[in-house]
Every structure is written in C-alpha cells, then in structure tokens.
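ingest -> validate -> predict -> emit
validate: passed (alphabet ok, no gaps, 292 aa)
predict: started
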Amino acid sequence: MLLANANAVFAGNLLQRLHPFTFLFWSFLSCSLFFLGRLALQGREALAISGKVMVPLVVVNCTTALNWIGYYFALRFVEPAIVSAIMGGVGPLFMILMERFYFRRLFSALVWGAAFGVLAGTCLLVWASLFGHSGLKVYNYAGMLVGLSAALAGGASQALNTLATKQLGIRGWNAGQIMAHRFYLLILCALVLALQGPGLAVPLSWTLVGVVLSTLMGVIVPLWVLQRGILLSDPFIVAALLSLAPIIAYLFQGMDSRLSWSGVSLAGCLIVVVFTICSVVVKHKETRNEQA
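emit:
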C-alpha cells in the first residue's frame, strides 16, 4: 500500500508529460508479459484457461480496464489523495448499494450512517476540486470534471473486481494466474485509444525511466501483494487497510512540486477514511453475527 500510494503521486507528475493511454499500454503490457513469462516457467497447464473461470475472468478484465483507465485519467487532473479517497470510498459504498438492491440484503442504521458519512466526505472533496480548494496549484475546471468522473467510475468498478477476484480464488486460481490474465482488455483498449490519439512513442529520457519505475514499484509489486492478500486474508482486513490509502497518499504529496498542502483536502480524506473504516467494521460484525 505504501508503494502504491507513493506511485500515485509519482505517476500524477509523470502523466503531465505522457498521455494516460500511452502509459497504460506500455506499463500493463510489460506487467502482463512479466507474469505470463513467470507462469510459463511452470508449464503449459499453468497458462490454460478453463471454462469454469471464464465468467469471473471476463468480469475481472472489464472492471480492471475501467478501474485503471479511471485511476490514471483522474491522476492527470485531480490531487492524488482525493483520487485515492474517492476511489477507496466509492467502492465500499457501491458494494453496500449492490448488496441491498441486487442481493436484497438488509443493513442496520449504522451501516447506512457510515455510508452517508463516506458520501459526505466525497462531496466535500468534489467541491474542493471543482472550486479550487484542493492541493493542486494549477486549476483546470474542465479537467477536474473529467478526472472526478473517472475516479467515480473507477471506484465503482473496484467492488465488482474484488468479488470476481475472490471467485477466481475459489475456483483454484492463484495470484500469479490472476495477474497474468487480468489485463487483456485494458491493454487492448489502451492500444486502440493511444493509436487514435497520442500515439505509443515514449521520449527516450527520464520519462522512459519513470514508466519503468512506475510499472515495477507501482503496478507489479503492489498488485501481486494485493492479490495474495485478497486470496489469503479476510476481506475485512484487506478493506480496512486499503481504506487508509488517502492519508498515505496525502503525506507523499509533499514530494510533488505541483501540489501544496490543503486543509480541505485533508479534512475530506479523513472523513472518507474514518467512515469507510466504520462501514467495514460494522459490516464485518454483522456478517459474523449472521454466520453464528
């Protein structure tokens, strides 16, 4: 989580010089080839995709594409801590709504109270971004709208992604297999969109070095560790730890010259983090009581 949030700040700076689609294509193509090569060393059977995993694998590919495109587009225009808070807060909120209206599950007033707290914090961060009260020194209203929309869409996809990843684990897949096969749609979308617009060229300068570092320290290592965590740990622990991401991202922002300290951003992030943790804790207790 530390690496991922440090990368959020680093990538936000890098994306000022490199278009998100170009970055996404090279970064995740490299990541996918790395894990496919690692998997190939185990033999052909490790690379095989059986019919029983096809549905959750398609869901993982679709939500991964939406999640990462939304994430990097948001980082191009919005303060990294705000991106982290919105995406981290909207995911659990979307999960509650999905379980209530799709699975017909009932929740206590405490769960709904925590959900509205997350929504209030998210609204504060959206307001701060749109009206120039975030930590970004250069303000772009149109860019903020694009970035915030991307963050909201990416956050909503995280809930489905977590559920589908868990289903792959139940069907016998390990973290390496999931990492090798989850980026196909993202790579294809990034390739098509990059060829239609900014192209695939990366300047042979420190920008290329930045892409390599961001891919290794911000994608390959954190994602592999996260997949292991989702498969081996209680989802409650994973969700609780991930909810701390906005505060960590906020602390790392001091290293980016584009950003200044914003009290409103910090307040919004704290509200989202506190109520997200409350929601996770209350839901965990209610689930345990139902199973008892």
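The chain has a mean pLDDT of 81.
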